């Protein structure tokens, strides 16, 4: 059995939908198999701890994402949440309805524009969001502890670089805005 981490080349071939995989046209590209797989496994474990808590509420990862961003951005417009999550209104509608019906999120009309739907975490929603964030923070802090000084900044730079260039500044502004909102 071949070791897939030892310079396996990606060739330019068509995937089932006809999309070309880059590589052979440029003479081949070394796949970052180890990083690809580490990202898969890290994500699995990163969301695994919260998944166990969410099961008690019959919630899934979509509920977690909605609750996370609403809690971090009080008064967020539904349209902004759709942009952040990059999902359809229909997908969000089902998840949001459950969170509202069970008292984790409230929806209010905008003061200037009554057509706007602004979202807020209830105290119950904030408590759940913070519990999930605490689990993930513990995992992150354990990893940073193993890596030593500078790990947080190195991870931040790496993850920022992984975001498409045309979205990077918007994501960083969103994070900074949410940080400022939570300080108040």
Notable traits:
184 residues, mainly alpha, two-stranded antiparallel sheet, globular
* Major beta sheet summary: 3 strands, antiparallel
**What is the CATH third-level topology name?**
Arc Repressor Mutant, subunit A
Q: Report the order of strands and helices.
A: EEHHEHHEEHHH
Task: Calculate Rg over CA atoms.
Answer: 20 Å
Name of the CATH class: Mainly Alpha
Sheet/helix structural class:
mainly alpha
Hey, roughly how much beta strand do the residues contain? 5-15%
Total beta strand runs: 5
What's the tally of helices? 7
Under CATH, the homologous superfamily reads Winged helix-like DNA-binding domain superfamily/Winged helix DNA-binding domain
Share of helical residues: 55-70%
Terminal CA distance reads 57 Å
Number of domains: 1
How are strands sequenced across the largest beta sheet?
Answer: 3-5-4
Looking at the structure, what is the overall shape?
globular
The low-confidence runs, each spanning 5 or more residues with pLDDT under 50, are 1-8
The average pLDDT score comes to 86
CATH architecture descriptor name: Orthogonal Bundle
Explain this structure.
This protein is mainly α and 184 residues long. It has helices at residues 33-55, 61-72, 78-85, 89-101, 123-147, 151-162, 165-183, and strands at 9-10, 29-30, 76-77, 105-109, 117-121. It has a single domain, classed as Arc Repressor Mutant, subunit A (Orthogonal Bundle). The protein has seven helices and five strands, in the order ββααβααββααα. The strands form two sheets. The protein has a three-stranded antiparallel β-sheet. Strands 1-2 form a two-stranded antiparallel ribbon. A hairpin with a 7-residue loop joins β4 (105-109) and β5. α1 runs antiparallel to α5 and α2 crosses α4 (89-101). Residues 1-8 have low confidence and may be disordered.
